[in-house]
Amino acid sequence: MNATTGERDAAAQAAGFALPTRDDIAEIESSSRVSTADGVFYLNSPISYRDAEGRSALAPVGFALSEHRLVTIRFAEMPVFDKFAEHFAQRPCGSSAEAFAGIIEALIDRLADVLEHIAADLDMLSRQTFRVEDAGQRRSTRNANRNLRRTLTSIGQSGDAIGNLRDTLLGLTRIVAYTQQSAAAWLPAAIKERLATVRQDLASLNDYDQQLSAKTSFLLDAVMGFISIEQNNIFKVLTVVSVVGIPPTFVVGLYGMNFKNMPEYDWAWGYQWSWALIIVSIVIPLVWFRLKDWI
After folding, report:
1. Interatomic CA distance for residues 54 and 49, integer angstroms
2. How many beta carbons lie within 10 A of that of residue 4, not counting itself?
3. Which stretch of DSSP H or E encloses residue 212?
4. pLDDT score at 150
5. Residue 116, class by beta-carbon neighbours within 10 Å (0-12 exposed, 13-18 middle, 19+ buried)?
């Protein structure tokens, strides 16, 4: 992990074959992801992991597999490899191919657990998004905006994790299929059967990942729809305020022109008349909007 040039050269000398650099492992071409040279399989794939902040990220991982040696090259802390190393110390594998199959199976188990965790998070977000509130329950605009922002952030994080898992599944599918279908005479038939089972598991996980991706898109559209509704409510309030404010503004402007020939100046109850007219001009639009169920 995070080997220096000297450490990589020492490992290559001990293994008996050349090891790729990080740039080689990070290549995205199919020919760079899976290849064979001098009887050694060079298999590369991006692997999803949790960074120091707990967010989903991708890191390139390389496998160099020969008849007697397996070298894994990675550039991030991945508990799967550490746990497999502990398991290997207690129960050593009989061959390099068996160790390779064991690591791939451990990775698949971890991916399945992560997908289940994301599915549970999405179910919780779905219940929160489509929660039916009581008729008398009213949420403040500030709380509603905060909840929508939090939900949108959670959906985005789930979407990032699902996308990284999809890249991992595609990469593992490519290297497992290449290894299983190879004509290497030293690859045991039992290992090929295990890799065939692994391919089926990867296919099912890929289908499940696509289902979660569709659910994430649906929740994202739903939250954006609720955000649009909140914005429409704000514009509705502004519209009501502006419409209600126009008639009294007209009345105040009319009686504030101060012309000498205005007959209302001579009225004994002119001041009260103007106030009554202002109040009525406010009440009538409010009653009309109430009948239209706008407020």
Report:
1. 9
2. 8
3. helix 189-255
4. 87
5. exposed
| CA angle (156 as vertex; 154, 161 as ends), nearest 5 | 95
For Cα atoms 121, 106, 180, give the angle at the middle one, nearest 5 degrees: 120
Q: How does pLDDT run across 15-61, given as a tens digit for each residue?
A: 999 999 999 998 888 777 899 998 899 999 999 999 888 889 999 99
DSSP for residue 266: G
Summarised one tens digit per residue, pLDDT across range 186-236 is 888 899 999 999 999 999 999 999 999 999 999 999 888 888 888 887 888
Q: Which residue has the tokens 């999405």?
A: 122
Which residue is associated with the tokens 């499940």?
208
E strands in the chain = 34-37, 40-50, 56-65, 70-74
pTM of the model: 0.78
What single-letter DSSP state applies at residue 75? S
- Residue 204 and residue 162: Cα distance in Å, rounded? 15
